[in-house]
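Contributing new records

If you add data, match the layout below exactly. Sequence lines come first and carry their own label; structure lines follow with theirs. Keep one chain per record. Anything else will be rejected by the validation script.
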Amino acid sequence: MLTPKFRVESEATAPKIYTVMEINRQARLVIEGQFSGIWLEGEISNLKYHTSGHIYLSLKDSASQINAAFFSRSNQNLKFQLKDGLKVVAFGRLSLYEARGQYQFYIDRVEPKGLGALQLAFQQLKEKLQNEGLFETERKRPIPRFPGTIGIVTSPTGAAIRDMLNVLNRRSRCTRILLNPVKVQGEGAAEEIARAIDEMNSLPAGEVDVLIVGRGGGSLEDLWAFNEEAVARAVHRSKIPVISAVGHEIDWTICDWVADLRAPTPSAAAELVVQNMEEILSSLKESRARIHNAMKNFLAFRKKTVAALMTGYAFEQPRVLLDQFSQRFDEIFRQLHNYARSAAEMKKKQLQSAAGQLRTLNPLAILERGYSLTFLEDGELLKKTNQVRAGDILATRVTDGTVYSKVVRSE
């Protein structure tokens, strides 16, 4: 009889049993060791902004996708806005979330695919503000022609302020300059510029007539403070007209689009904001000369007119003219007298005719022929006996007066 053989394994040859957490941790270490500090290209989808400031998304291509996390400590300096469908290149590390056994990509930095982050941020903010109407021409105000006080927001040590002061002093020494010094690049520069614009507007009304905001030339990164939304909003809410003077002529910033006037350079802004005193004086001299010549020509013309009148018929024989006017006056007076007399005679005949008609129609005219008229007490003419009763008082009108009588009886 065969006895079955049983294999007895020692502890040394027993299989290793892992916990789930141990496997996930080992897998994380392997993944991180192999894919640490890598660039990953993909299209953003499932984008979510968490209240904590973290950003969660997926990166996908035509065949697959991977979950990604962009924590707040890393995305604070993100210049542009992430959107679903945006193609990006992200730098970070691949790891595994041990609690769920899911691997994902942790992003440290992200750049738009085919376009720099700053250019994309510029386009995104420009489109946003344009849709809100901040670039509309109708809202832009005219720059005062003769400002008494010019406010300037720029660096106190840069070349821009020196160039502007040189131009302003050369063109108009009577203009007052008020400088609010700020940083014009680097961290916090945009906030300083926006705060300076608000401070200028907080001064009493009329204290500052126009505001120049700008700096000298530089790279896109150097000029970036003037592409920040904080500066654009401050320029938009400014009650003082704003001239944007950032960089060189080829440089365009968001501040340029929002401002009431864009100057290609800080020096050009200074030239635009004040009139050249020499040009003004020259213009005044030309105007004075034109007025003098115009008055001279006017007086010469009037002198000729007076001279012509002096040699005219009226001045040579004034007595003849007066006699003619007197004779003409007599003729007109005689005509008026004749017209008045004819009119009076005509009216007299009309009145006589009307009087004759009134006498004919007058009921009292029969009295002159021996008749009389008797009236009741109320003035009614007595025509019938039934109008009176015994005792009534009657008034009888005769030619030379009235006789009053009392009714004894009537038959």
